[in-house]
């Protein structure tokens, strides 16, 4: 997910290949919250889009997440949509605009962004990069060149990510 803030974290980056209509990604939210709480700005969590064909609203949801990022509310929006996957299944794109309004974002701009497709290239690029590095499902985490597949099981993934982040932060201190 693009981030237009000028100050970039200097710590490790965790790419989270996610799909906003994916129940496994919803269950990964607790791990992502725990990682953000533990590391704060020492770990950059970067949402990467990997919409799956089996979910018909996933591509639109990825575009909506990019619009939320542009409006400064990326993670709150992602969490709100993932927390209500069944509603997205039922309502489709109108639900994406509805969530934007609930969060105080410019819902009209969301609607326009979904119609004009201004974020399609970002979503396409993420998906192509994911395929190139072997992502096949969501959630998939990539940190320090290691790919961790959360689509099979979330079991032990947060602990593995924490081991890697702790090692990288320790190495950074020594440098």
Describe this structure in words.
There is one protein chain. With 175 residues, the chain is α+β, with helices and mostly antiparallel strands. 55% of the residues lie in helices and 11% in strands. The protein is built from eight helices and four strands; from the N terminus they run E-H-E-H-H-H-H-H-H-E-E-H. The protein has a four-stranded mixed sheet, sandwiched between helices. Helix 2 (58-70) runs antiparallel to helix 3, helix 2 (58-70) runs parallel beside helix 5 and helix 2 (58-70) packs across helix 6 (107-116). The model is unreliable at 2-7 (pLDDT under 50).
Could you give a quick summary of the protein structure above?
The chain is an alpha+beta fold and 175 residues long. It contains eight helices and four strands, in the order βαβααααααββα.
Distance between the termini: 29 Å
> Which class do the helix and strand fractions yield?
alpha+beta
What general outline do the C-alpha atoms trace?
A: globular
Task: Please give the number of β-strands.
Answer: 4
Helical run tally: 8
Strand content: 5-15%
Gyration radius, rounded: 16 Å
Mean pLDDT: 90
Multimeric state:
single chain
**Which sequence of strands runs across the widest sheet?**
2-1-3-4
- Biggest sheet character: 4 strands, mixed
Taking pLDDT < 50 over at least 5 consecutive residues as the criterion, the unreliable ranges are 2-7
Helix content: 55-70%
The helix/strand series, from N terminus to C terminus, equals EHEHHHHHHEEH
